[in-house]
Design a protein that fits this description.
Layout: E1 5-22, E2 29-48, E3 57-59, H1 71-83, E4 90-95, H2 106-122, H3 127-137, E5 150-153, E6 158-161, E7 170-174, H4 182-191, H5 198-211, H6 225-231, H7 234-244, E8 249-252, E9 259-263, H8 266-275, E10 284-286, H9 293-297
Helix pairs in contact: 1-2, 1-3, 4-6
The structure holds adenosine-5'-triphosphate (ATP).
């Protein structure tokens, strides 16, 4: 490697998230969810470390915590470990654009991008190995090894690519100035008994499969939303603001607290961004991105 390599790390929108019963095997909830990558993305770059560097260096301004605990740094370490890659030290930099701890899987996206960059640098193209490493890093990481539209089942680890034309809507992403831990949201969902039974989950799965990637509004549902709202009441105001700005539907993204408004007409979404521009944090206009767009952009 002589110069820097770049990868986009797209935010993911859970276009729907249906919560099922806990499975006996590992106590995790079964899910039916559609991961939709968005044009909102972190930019991850990898270049040779300066001469004399003793190890890999990861920088990610805007994310709290020691750099070595960044999920992308862990991905890089695990890649070296599992592949015995002894290439010279590298410098990984993350230009953070995805709201942090916000339900958009930004850390997982960065880890996926770090794995792609490491594999490109090491000249190893083994996606199965990258996915195995990703699964150890976190439940949302395997879908980020090759960002694409996936239907995820099991506890979110069984991925089925959803092909087809790019869905026609714009997404207005409205960050909420709070952090929510996914584990806390699941715990609250349990306290509130939000999970569906197995038959209900199967029925939702059938409905999602019948529609593919472009779900009708009545399937744009996030079962975790009441739990996220209970933990973070500011979400209610954000949902109301997005609806008042004309969204065809509004939902909490993943475990929250980010709110997303879907607009069937892009000009209506642009007008909504202008209407909400005075807010802090500011709204972000995004669109669904096609399968493998990250590769095409590399
Ligand atoms: P999770 O489902 O893990 O809660 P999320 O999608 O809600 O994820 P992330 O932006 O991935 O939110 O951040 C979750 C936590 O991971 C944060 O507390 C953050 O400090 C930590 N983290 C580690 N690495 C990263 C990274 N590269 N980008 C963002 N957060 C990171």
């Amino acid at each position: 490697m002589t110069g820097a390599l770049h990868e986009d790390a797209p935010a993911k929108l859970n276009l729907c998230l249906f919560l099922g019963p806990r499975r006996e095997r590992d106590g995790r909830h079964e899910l039916v969810t559609v991961f939709q990558p968005l044009t909102l993305a972190d930019r991850v770059s990898l270049e040779p470390a300066p001469l004399g560097a003793r190890g890999d260096d990861v920088s990610c301004p805007g994310v709290p915590g020691p750099p070595e605990e960044n999920l992308a740094a862990r991905a890089l370490r695990m890649f070296r470990d599992r592949t015995n890659w002894l290439g010279p030290p590298v410098r990984l930099h993350i230009d953070k654009r995805i709201p942090v701890a916000a339900g958009m899987a930004g850390g997982s996206a960065d880890a996926g991008a770090a794995l792609r960059l490491a594999a490109r640098t090491a000249g190893s193209g083994d996606d199965a190995l990258l996915r195995a490493i990703a699964a150890e890093l976190g439940a949302d990481v395997p879908a980020q090894v090759r960002p694409a539209r996936y239907l995820a089942t099991g506890a979110g680890e069984e991925l089925r690519a959803l092909d087809g034309p790019r869905p026609r809507y714009a997404a207005l992403v409205l960050p909420v100035a709070h952090a929510l831990s996914t584990a806390d949201v699941y715990r609250r969902a349990d306290d509130m008994a939000l999970a569906r039974d197995a038959a209900d989950l199967r029925e939702r799965l059938g409905a999602v499969v019948a529609h593919g990637a472009d779900l009708p509004d009545d399937l744009v549902v996030n079962d975790l939303e009441p739990a996220a709202r209970a933990l973070c009441p500011a979400i209610d105001e954000a949902l109301a603001a997005v609806r008042a700005a004309g969204a065809d539907c509004a939902l909490v993204c993943g475990s929250g607290p980010t709110v997303v408004g879907l607009f069937r007409r892009v000009d209506a979404a642009r007008a909504a961004v202008v209407a909400l521009a005075g807010r802090t944090p500011r709204p972000i206009l995004a669109e669904p991105r096609g399968p493998h767009a990250a590769e095409a952009a590399a």
